[in-house]
Amino acid sequence: MLHIVGMGLEKGDMTEKGREALKKSRKIFVESYTSFPYELEDPEVRTKIKKVNRSFVEEGRVLESAENSDVALLVPGDPLFATTHIALVAEARSRNIKVEVIHAPSIINVISRTGISPYKLGRVITISKAFESDSQKLQKNREQGLHTLCLLDPAVSIQDGIKVLQEFGVKGKVVACERLGMKGEKIAYGSLSDLLKLEFQNKPQCIIVPAKLHFFEEEFLENFSCKKQD
User: Fold this and answer.
1) pLDDT tens digits for 86-111?
2) Residue extent(s) of CATH 3.40.1010.10 domains in the chain
3) Which DSSP letter does residue 224 get?
4) What number is the average pLDDT over the span 48-69?
5) What is the SS3 assignment for 104-122?
6) β-strand pairing of 71-76 with 148-152
7) Residues of the chain with CATH 3.30.950.10
8) 174: nearest Cα among 196, 201, 155, 156
9) Topology (CATH) of 108-229
10) For the segment 122-169, what is each residue's pLDDT rounded down to a tens digit?
11) Which long-range contacts (CB under 8 A, 24 or more apart) does 78-87 make?
12) DSSP, res 54
């Protein structure tokens, strides 16, 4: 069986069901793309963990071990947030490999902490140094009146992300977040030029580009105005 286990955002977020799945798994793979997997405390579990990259998962190599034994794939946040893991579930089922998905908190769950409504969220984009960032998705979201969540690759800072958005022609105020929904959370709302003056040192980080705001969203966001943080 393949157990796809969500780690949540920080220590303490993983469910008891997830921890039990790790204990009975012969191998545990952990993969992250736009987040940072925290260290597990259980020494018995830690010895079974192998860190892998996204291509390892995309190529279905984790399934080779799951054909004959219990194997777990640890995913920061929620396990089915990325299409890569949905495709992995489909591939496992096509090979008659049993799959258990164990959910956990993710960035989508906590985006409402900013005041932005998840109901108005469009397609998520990733800003990465390794790949071209997709400005077309951002533009389409804005045309449809939808907010855009920009996940930042661990190698990309909020300052880098803001510069990319400037290149995309984004104007107006955006929301910059570090460790959203975690200890040490920081949320700042303001113009791109004003946000560039602030320091963001802790990961993971993301930027939300709002479409037209509801008055309640705007009122809530003003609590995080970068003018108040100067």
Assistant:
1) 999 999 999 999 999 999 999 988 99
2) 2-105
3) G
4) 86
5) CCCHHHHHHHHCCCHHHEC
6) unpaired
7) 108-229
8) 196
9) 3.30.950
10) 999 989 876 666 788 999 999 999 999 999 988 899 999 999 999 889
11) 78/6, 78/103, 78/104, 78/105, 78/106, 78/108, 78/109, 79/4, 79/5, 79/6, 79/103, 79/104, 80/4, 81/106, 81/107, 81/108, 82/33, 84/54, 84/57, 84/58, 85/4, 85/57, 87/58
12) H
Instruction: Give CA torsion, residues 75, 76, 77, 80, to 10 deg.
Output: -20
> Does the domain formed by 2-105 have CATH 3.40.1010.10?
yes
User: The pTM is what?
Assistant: 0.85
What's the pLDDT score for residue 41? 75
CA distances from 48 to 8, 22, 74, 195, 213 (A): 20, 9, 12, 42, 47
221, pLDDT greater than 80: yes
Please give the structure tokens belonging to residue 109: 């769950």
Whole-angstrom CA distances from 36 to 52, 150, 176 are 13, 16, 18
pLDDT at 196: 94
